[in-house]
Design brief:
alpha/beta; binds NADP nicotinamide-adenine-dinucleotide phosphate; seven-stranded parallel β-sheet; single chain; about 50% helix
């Protein structure tokens, strides 16, 4: 029987109670990984654990709020306490609410909250994860950070706080990739287009209201702007996540991998 891609590897996923993080947690566990599922919602985290246990996979839920410095450190510490190591970290959380406004209309608290959670907490996660990986024997460790095409190739209108924070995620991933390449740690970021998750439909509702059109009209406009004509399924994104975090991607580091159905191919 062939060895599974993540057999005996420990996978930490801050932001895996729903959407892409959930699909990735399940996929990692199916490939033999020991998965730490994390987020603020315990009930949703437990559903992911139940699903993984249903096929005899290995997973633990650790409740953690990425707005809390203590929780961020505790998440790495607890992972090490339970499983003894970290082989892969997929930092998938992001702040999406209160993102839609003109740049002159955001208030300072809103701007700070986006930078704090989507950008600074991502750095703090990486900081603790890298320190943990450096204490382990040299290997092929992988960190993947969730970015967005809105942050990869330029500023997007009407969601600039989100896009600015994601640009920071991209930049810090590239810096870390260069600094730790010789230590056996690969760092990449995932520049998502539109994924079919709960979050995106809440966001589309808000955006439709902002433009004064219906959600159906917005959905049609969005789909027609995507060469593949549809949103990505969480499973399609998880497939890419697993590849980038596997040894099959051993020569990929410092890359912003775009997964957007061709949407940005005109300008990136
Ligand atoms: N969906 C898209 O179209 C799209 C496009 C480009 C990029 N992305 C990025 O892809 C990532 C995943 O998005 P998704 O669509 O899968 O969204 P989602 O279903 O809303 O998932 C977001 C995850 O992050 C967690 N999270 C959010 N804030 C957190 C906090 N303060 N502390 C701890 N966990 C937190 C959520 O868990 P709790 O709520 O339980 O805390 C959830 O597990 C995000 O970084 C997003 O920006 C998404």
């Amino acid at each position: 029987m062939s060895r599974k891609r993540f057999q005996d590897k420990v996978i930490l996923i801050p932001g895996s109670t729903s959407g892409v993080g959930k699909a990735s947690a399940i996929a990692f566990a199916k490939e033999g990984g020991k998965v730490v599922v994390s987020g603020r919602r315990e009930d949703r985290g437990q559903q992911v654990i139940d699903k993984i246990k249903s096929f005899s996979g290995e997973a633990t839920f650790i409740k953690a709020d990425m707005a809390s410095r203590d929780d961020i450190k505790k998440l790495t510490d607890e992972t090490i306490r339970i499983y003894g190591r970290i082989d892969v970290a997929f930092n998938n959380f992001g702040k999406h609410d209160e993102a839609i406004a003109l740049i002159a209309d955001y208030d300072e608290e809103c701007f700070d909250a986006h930078m704090d959670i989507s950008m600074k907490s991502m750095w703090l996660c990486m900081k603790h994860q890298i320190k943990a990986m450096l204490k382990q024997e040299k290997g092929d460790y992988a960190i993947l950070n969730s970015s967005s095409i809105s942050g990869v190739g330029g500023g997007w209108p009407f969601i600039s706080v989100y896009s600015i924070a994601k640009s920071g995620v991209d930049s810090m991933s590239k810096s870390a990739a260069q600094e730790y390449a010789q230590k056996g740690i690969r760092v990449n970021s995932l520049g998502g287009g539109f994924f079919d998750t709960e979050m995106i439909h809440i966001y589309f509702e808000e955006l439709a209201q902002f433009y004064g059109i219906t959600k159906k009209q917005l959905d049609e406009q969005i789909n027609s702007s995507i060469p593949l004509g549809r949103l990505a399924t969480p499973q399609e994104v998880a497939n890419t996540v697993l590849f980038l975090c596997s040894s099959e991607a051993s020569y990929i580091t410092g890359a912003s991998i775009v997964i957007d159905g061709g949407m940005s191919s005109k300008y990136l």
